[in-house]
Amino acid sequence: MIVTTAGKFNEKLIQKALTLCEEVQGTFVYRKNRSIASLQEQGNDYVLMVGVEKLTLYAPGSNEPVFFHPNSSMFRVKQLLRREHDPLVAAAQLTTGMTVLDCTVGLASDAIVCSLAVGETGSVTGIEKNPYLALLVREGLRAWDSSLPEMNEAMRRIVIETNDHLTALKKREDASVDVVYFDPMFEQSLDSPGLAGLKTVAAHTTITEEVLHEALRVAKCRVVMKDHYASSRFQAFPFHVYKRPSSKFHYGVIEKEARRTM
């Protein structure tokens, strides 16, 4: 990975970039007047641009920037604070004190909502296979100021683990978390500008029978999956699907006792 700074930088920003560069064992390059594209061509590698307020990640050969932002979790958190309905919280039956393992954390939008729902006495761990995306999200959760104290606290509580979800699940003991959650890349493409950059860096791993067996072993209560309404995964595995007529994605749930039928 190549690590550099934003166009406007000072010594403090350089030091921050150098610290992150050491963490990812990357190569630091002084920005000077060079474009991101020229840095990408130089090493045919990921480029992490360190700015004052955020980190921006570019995949090799892509000009789509990826940066941390709470995205839809912002208004979903506000809804929860008003004690309104959230479909994921309802499907997962999340309550204060529960533990959640988000196996496809991405930019952590769902993880933030889960963290708020389970509160201080609960916990949310997010799994991300791409180490550079994991770094981006970890730093974002640590530093982003949403102006909502409850949301800030929920973000700070989330733990990000760099791993693939099957390995992460195999490391865990039986019934060690209440809910295991998946939000895999949809088989059908959704035209969403917010997902364009993420698609260039996210791990495109599928959900297999082995993964679900491990998830049901680890889950104390249930496994939940968010997917496109036409996904073949809802037919391939014994999910009870909560259909949402106004939405292009549904939530599927396998309760713990369903493991015996797989």
TrEMBL record:
Domain of life (superkingdom): Bacteria
Taxonomic lineage: Bacteria, Bacillati, Bacillota, Bacilli, Bacillales
Gene Ontology molecular function terms on file: rRNA (guanine-N2-)-methyltransferase activity
Coiled coil spans: none
Protein's UniProt name: SAM-dependent methyltransferase
